[in-house]
Design a protein that fits this description.
Helix content: under 10%
Structural class: mainly beta
Strand content: over 45%
Order of helices and strands: EEEEEEEEEEE
Shape: globular
Number of helices: 0
Distance between the termini: 40 Å
Number of strands: 11
Length: 123
C-alpha cells in the first residue's frame, strides 16, 4: 500500500523550532520528489519546500527560505522538514506529498498525500 505518514507537529513558541517527518512506504522512494504543503488562505494549499530525490535539488517558498530545510533519508525512506525561527501563526496542518513532475509548488504535481500533522506557533 502506497502511503505517506507525517509526524512531528505540535505547539511551539514563536522563534522556536520543529522537525516534521514523513515516512514513505509501498513505493520506490528514490524515484520521486517529496514536497511539504500547508494551507494558504484563499488558495487551498501552498508549497513550502520540496526535495527531489531524482536530482537532489531543493525548492523553497520565498516566505520560508533561510528558515526551513528540507531533506530526505533514502535508507529510512523518510523526508524531513526542519523549521527554525518559526513565526507566529494559528494552527496549520502540514502535509507531505509524493510527486516529481510539473511545478514543484503545484498540488497537481503530486498524487499521494499524507494525512497531515498539526503545527501551532504561539506568540
Amino acid at each position: 500500500q502506497v502511503q505517506l505518514v507525517e509526524s512531528g507537529g505540535g505547539l511551539v513558541q514563536a522563534g522556536g523550532s520543529l522537525r516534521l517527518s514523513c515516512v514513505a512506504s509501498g513505493f520506490l522512494f528514490g524515484n520521486y520528489a517529496v514536497a511539504w504543503f500547508r494551507p494558504a488562505p484563499g488558495k487551498g494549499r501552498e508549497g513550502v519546500a520540496c526535495f527531489n530525490n531524482m536530482d537532489l535539488s531543493t525548492y523553497y517558498a520565498r516566505s520560508v527560505k533561510g528558515g526551513f530545510t528540507v531533506s530526505m533519508d533514502k535508507v529510512k525512506t523518510t523526508a524531513y522538514l526542519q523549521m527554525d525561527n518559526l513565526k507566529y501563526e494559528g494552527p496549520a496542518a502540514y502535509y507531505c506529498a509524493r510527486g516529481g513532475w510539473g511545478s514543484w509548488n503545484a498540488t497537481t504535481s503530486y498524487d499521494v498525500w499524507g494525512q497531515g500533522t498539526q503545527v501551532t506557533v504561539s506568540s
